[in-house]
Amino acid sequence: MSMTLTHGAVEALVKGLPVYNPVLQLLNMRKLNSPSGTSRYRLMMSDGQRSFTSFLLDTQLNHLAEENLLVPNCVCKLTKTILETLKDGRRVLVVTGIEILQKAEETGGKIGNPTPYKADDETSQSMDSGTSVSEVSSSAAVPGPSDTNNSTPSPRGYGSGFGATASPMKTSPMMTSPMRASPMKASPMKASPMKTSPMKTSPMKTSPMKTGSVISIAKLNPYQTNWTIKARVTNKSNVRSWSNSKGEGKLFSFEIVDESGEIRLTAFNKEVDRFFTLLEQGKVYYISKATVKIANKQFNRLKNDYEITLHAHSSIVLCDDSQGVPTLHFDFVPIAELENKEKDTILDIIGVCKSAEDVSKITTKTSREVSKRAISLIDTTETVVTVTLWGEEAEKFNCTREPVVAIKGARLSDFGGRSLSTLFSSTVMVNPDIPEAFRLRAWYDQEGYAVESQSLTYTGSASSASRINWKTLSDVKNEQMGQDEKAEYFSCVATVVYTRKENCLYQACPSADCNKKVIEQPDGMYRCDKCNRQFPNFKYRLILSANLADFGDNQWVTCFQETAEVLLGHSADTLGHLRDTDETAFEEVFQKANFTTHIFKNRVKLETYNDESRVKVTVMEIQPLDHREYSRTLLRNIHKLASST
Amino acid sequence: MAGIIDVPKPRINCSMLSQHINRPVCFVGRVEKVHPTGKTFTLLDGEGKVATVELNEPLEEELSGVVEVIGMVSNKGAIMATTYNIMREDKGIPFDLELYNEALKVVHDFPQHYPFEVASSG
């Protein structure tokens, strides 16, 4: 008595359509061997109408096959399957949940007359396209190597087992001619390395691998166990040790790139000792026999669904022929687009370093001392962003000559709006040898250096902020600033040439928000008219009249409490006290302020006092002048003026 | 010695040495090597090129960092120093030699804007 199979389930499953607990019959089962020891069972399932050969039993269910619970002709219910599409388009259904409904003996043979389900035409085409290697091979290999392949029952080359029988369009029952199908995908190198792989002929000759077939990183997947990749190390981390409740260990990771893409590899414990010193950033290696698994996106920000873990059988050999292997794979985000990205995104960035702060040392939460340096990068989007470098990179960074800086794997933060920080795993390249860098250099030298840029990172310091209205003191008079009754703001670089010490201090109301001048009463109390109260005391406040000068002109300005304290370097209270106690020291304060140069942010406005209108300048903010930054700005302006004449 | 003090001494780097032979100059560079005798040492300018400085008397102190040398350029392109002073870098701001070099180039490219002649009439 045959059970009812779920007609149409096979087609639906392969197409990725939802099917609830389909009942299928197992027609055939094949054990695939892999050098690492784990077996994998490949199943041919039928729904009575169609059959499909690319079902893979999840290794956790291997016991079902080994204990003869899964036997050809038994009927089962698939409770959970995962459809995987490999990079070359082939589809695999991984069976992660299965129930045996009827034993093989009870079914009495194959139910129905199922025809093999061929995957889409697209699948077959994608097999032909892809790397040039397989393109060449599909013509060469189809007629030719079938003989050689047929005689080798155990698949050695890449695409063992799975690859060999992967093409449903070629053969239906997989038992009959697995090998004949293989030339489509499997080991084109193996067949005729000299003919089929013009790019890879030399490595094949020199390759110490017996399995010899190099595949591209893009083709790596967990179902292929026998592969070799040839790639360049783009990034190697330091060895990190950990110690937690489960124990301790050490690891290091590195990223590699080839023409097809990039992937991250990690080595633990013993493998760290084996491979850490062997691997060098920038060199090309053959890597084989390692575990490919789904990438842990928490630590891995590469564009690859998979990552590799090295194990005891892994092999890494230095390759002399690095022809065809690209150096570094970047995916730069224009700085202006950083605003649209989410914070904590890991991305690549390139820009010209306009300025850099000096390196500073900070102490981390774990009481470690670490160096850090903030640099500003600008790119053709005319936007600036601040990037923080750490450790040795911060210490040896030199921003003179405004180098092009490319960073791979920086983390975007919302600190100060938008800013970037390098990570343990980031790669920083100064003036890299890539076309993007040359383009940036050319743009910057011709126009970029003069651009009024917008900074995404608000730092508060005048040197990196944008939208500053820079003027010289002669501009104030020449442009008749502030005359229109409306206050105008400007910034300038100027030197203090005079500070008036007379009447710079006044007695103010001691209440928190009131700064009104208090009148001393005959009884010694101080009266504030605004608060309408009397106080036994007062607080000193500053109103400082000063004269600023630059190369072109001078200007009288007024500095109130905060700015006056910055200029004089003392608080109003201290000065008040000094005035009453030590006249000489008091005068010295004003002397010392003379001939100091700062960046002044000022407000200029027409003020009327007793029928007299005068343009008055008040200092809103004083910032220290970074002479180097200022020099660079001046040089830029000179070059700009020189080239425009 | 007196002659060189009152005379304008253009600031130059290594590329300009050949144009100032037998003339007093002011050269700023970073100390590269000091000869064991202490009578000569080499300086690196902002472009990384090397200039040789020769002294009348051997050095009496350790020379390192950025130094400003005033002297005459010899026929062979070395600087016969009359005096030197060491630029202090311990006050927090390091001397940016590359930036200095950029400024030097501007001064030499636009002599019309940087007239350094001393007014002869007092």
UniProtKB/TrEMBL annotation, chain A:
Residues 107-209 are annotated as: Disordered. The keyword Zinc applies. Signal peptide: none annotated. Residues 194-209 have a biased composition (Polar residues). Residues 335-431 form the Replication protein A OB domain. Pfam families: Rep-A_N, Rep_fac-A_C, REPA_OB_2, tRNA_anti-codon. CDD domains: RPA1_DBD_A, RPA1_DBD_B, RPA1_DBD_C, RPA1N. Residues 5-102 form the Replication factor-A protein 1 N-terminal domain. Residues 227-312 form the OB domain. Residues 489-634 form the Replication factor A C-terminal domain. As part of the heterotrimeric replication protein A complex (RPA/RP-A), binds and stabilizes single-stranded DNA intermediates, that form during DNA replication or upon DNA stress. It prevents their reannealing and in parallel, recruits and activates different proteins and complexes involved in DNA metabolism. Thereby, it plays an essential role both in DNA replication and the cellular response to DNA damage. PANTHER family: OS03G0429900 PROTEIN. Belongs to the replication factor A protein 1 family. Component of the heterotrimeric canonical replication protein A complex (RPA). This is Replication protein A subunit. It comes from Solea senegalensis (Senegalese sole).
Automatic annotation (TrEMBL), chain B:
InterPro entries: Rfa2. Keywords: Nucleus. One of its GO terms (molecular function) is single-stranded DNA binding. It comes from the Eukaryota. Its main location: nucleus. The keyword Nucleus applies. GO terms for biological process: base-excision repair; DNA replication; double-strand break repair via homologous recombination; mismatch repair; nucleotide-excision repair. One of its GO terms (cellular component) is site of double-strand break. The keyword Electron transport does not apply. It is found in: Nucleus. Belongs to the replication factor A protein 3 family. This is Replication protein A 14 kDa subunit. It comes from Solea senegalensis (Senegalese sole). The lineage of its organism: Eukaryota, Metazoa, Chordata, Craniata, Vertebrata.
